[in-house]
Each structure stands twice: as C-alpha cells, then as structure tokens.
Amino acid sequence: MTPTMRKTLIATGAVATLALGLAGCSGADEPAEGERPSKITLSLVPSVEGADLAEALDPLTAYLSDGLGIEVEGVVATNYAATVEALGADQAQVIITDAGSLYQATQQYDAELILRDVRFGATSYAAVAYTNDPDTFCEDEPVLATYDASGIELSYCNGLEEVGASATGQGPKGVEKLAEADGARVALQAATSPAGYQYPVVAMRDLGLDTDADITQVPVEGNNNAVLAVANGDAEVGFAYWDARTTVAEEVPDIADRAVAFAYTEMIPNGGVAVSSTLPDDLVAELTTLLDDYADSSDEAADVMFDLVGLSDWTSETADDEIARYGEILEQFAG
Q1: Is-above-0.85 flag for pTM?
Q2: Looking at residues 98-104, what average pLDDT do you find?
Q3: Which of 9, 140, 223, 225 has the smallest CB count inside 10 Å?
C-alpha cells in the first residue's frame, strides 16, 4: 500500500525518460479554448507490469471512452512524479497519482483535484509507532483489537483502540509518548516515505527531539522491515503505515506481543485523480462522475480497479486540506 512520495520538481533527465516512455502516444488534440477535445490521455503508475498492462488498462479506458464519447488513451508513467510532468507537458490531461504528486500538480500546473483514492473505506491513514518496550512507551496495558482488513487481533496502547473492538487507525493519538524516544534506537525508512519517515520525523521534531542527535536512526527498507526491526529487537521503536504488522504476521505469529502500536501520527492522505486546467468544465464533471461510479459499475470493474491501482473506490470528497498539509510536510524535506 505505499506509494513513493516525491519532494520537488522532477529532474530534467527523468522528464526525458518520461518522454521516451510516452513516445508514439499523442496527447489530446488542441481544440480552441473551452472546446471539447476529441481525445484525452490518462497517465498512471499501475500495480501490474509487462504483458498484463494493456489488458489491465483497456477496461477502464474503454469505459471512459464510451461514457465521454471521445477517445481515452491510457499511458504508463515511470513513477508518480512523472505523472505530474506528463500533465505539465500536456502529454496527459488526467493523472492518477499519489498525494505528493497531486500537491505538486495543483501548485505547479494549476491542476484540479477531482477525486481521492479509497482503500478499504479510508481516504487517509496514519503512520504508526511500534515498540517492543511498552513499559517505556505505554501509559496503560496494551489491549487487543481486530484489524478488519486481515481479521487478526493486534496490540495497541495509549488509548489508540478499544479492547475487543475493530481497530480504526485514526490519528493523531498517543503522539506525546514519542518524546520517550530520546536516546532510543528508531527504525526509519527512506526519507521519501511519508509513513516510515516524514510524518514520524515531523511529529518527533514538534516534541522538541533532534532526530539527528537525540535518537539513533536504524535505516530499514520497507514497512515490513520496520516492523521486524522492532520485533527482533534491532530498534526500540519503528514506524510504518497502519497496520504493517499484518505483512509479517505469518513470519512472526506472535507479532502482537513483540510489536505494540503506541502512537498514531496525523493522517496521511491517499492519492487521487487530478485533471488539466485546459479541459472544459462540462467534460471534467462527466469524467468525475464516471470515475466516481467506476468501482460500482460491475464486478469486473471493481477487480480491475484493485488490480490496476490497488484501490477499492474513488470519492469526490477530496479533502483538499489534507493534501495541502502534506504539501507543508514535503516542504520540510525539500532541501
């Protein structure tokens, strides 16, 4: 569930890579201002690869073409930031991308955010602080709550969840206990990871911790390894998305005992869909409705959507403030 977040403008070399990736794919025809184009191009980073790609894209683009009455072509971006540059270069007029790239598209190219991604009913998620030392980081005894997406019970303290209930993953909660990380070994992911680095680092800094001097950073790759670092005792604290413990539950059956969730950061937005400011309003409205209805249009559509971009739905409740806040977070790591 982890899209790579980009901090700033993509480098010129990456733009060249995108241009090669889109070779032979024309953008929209260039109609007069306000005129409906005869073709639009959609750029995304799919979950599938290789030979399955065209087959995966076809149902969505065919659905949009039929609904809009114009040709919709799908093209693949090499990464999320490349979707922004495709839009800026008018090589794509619609992008399905991550939250950081949505922010960049709106700021750099006056794109319009029309939909937010929905995963298992949620449009945002928290970064979670896990520990193998509840005596230090928990104000109360850990309790078990059910993570409904996988149906397993996991451990939480500091009032994050209610005993025996379905876990909600709603933050911020328990963040003040991050102050106890002073002097601790802390597993952190790459600096581009929102849940594994950016939001946790901002939360610790807000509590007065110098994340370069007051903690010992333990670099890890991936959310599963952040959890394993805690479970195996390589770090007292680790950060990952909610709830990454499910990724190691088979490998570590007693993960609820070995990694307790003790804090949720503020919520991190999912990605979504943005469109070029060059598209006429009536076309944008039709496109928004079609994409919003896509997952419910058929069982096949729901399967395609999940397989193609790992989503269960889109929503027109865009919560632009969450995207703006994420932009503020990104700025802190843009040096």
Answers
A1: no
A2: 92
A3: 140
Within 10 angstroms of residue 4's Cβ, the number of other Cβ atoms is: 15
- Given CATH 3.40.190.10, say whether it is the number of domain 12-120+270-331: yes
CATH topology of 12-120+270-331 equal to that of 124-268?
yes
CA distances from 193 to 54, 183, 221 (A): 29, 23, 10
Residue 84's pLDDT band (cuts 50, 70, 90): very high
Q: Which pLDDT does position 33 carry in this prediction?
A: 59
The residue count of the chain comes to 335
pLDDT at 16: 32
CATH architecture of 124-268: 3-Layer(aba) Sandwich (3.40)
Dihedral angle at the C-alpha atoms of 33, 38, 43, 46, nearest 10 degrees?
150
Output b/e per residue, 295-334; b: 16+ Cβ within 10 A: beeeeebbebbeebbebebbeeebbeebbebbbebbeebe
Report domain extents, the chain.
12-120+270-331, 124-268
The reported pLDDT for the residue numbered 52 is: 65
pLDDT for 22 beyond 50 = no
How far apart (Å, rounded) are the C-alpha atoms in residues 319 and 123?
9
